[in-house]
Amino acid sequence: MYRLASDVTCLAAFAGLARDCEIMYRVWDHLMLTSSQRENHAEAAAGAEVMKRSSVARRDPR
Predict the structure, then answer these.
(1) Please, what is the end-to-end C-alpha distance for the chain in angstroms?
(2) Per-residue DSSP letters for 5-51?
(3) Residues 57, 60, 62, CA angle at the centre, nearest 5°?
(4) C-alpha dihedral sign at 43, 6, 60, 57
(5) 54: phi > 0 → left, psi -120 to 50 → alpha, else beta; which?
(6) What whole-number distance in Å separates Cα of residue 59 and Cα of residue 62?
(7) Rounded distance, CA 60 to CA 4, Å?
(8) Residue-wise pLDDT tens digits, 9-47
(9) Are 22 and 59 in contact (CB under 8 A)?
(10) Which of 5, 25, 32, 57 is deepest in the core (most CB within 10 A)?
């Protein structure tokens, strides 16, 4: 589990540096899913809220 958290953190940092909205969206998606699996519902809900407000969600209705 710690390795996954480390990987997500690194991806988030790289995506943030690159200012790549699509990768940031995917990082939030992975964080939301892993939080849900760990039954950390508050963190999963916060991740889902960030995803809904992202520019990627506004232009890609998947």
Answers:
(1) 28
(2) HHHHHHHHHHHHHHT-HHHHHHHHHHHHHHHHHTT-HHHHHHHHHHH
(3) 90
(4) positive
(5) beta
(6) 9
(7) 26
(8) 777 777 777 788 888 888 888 888 888 888 989 888 888
(9) no
(10) 32
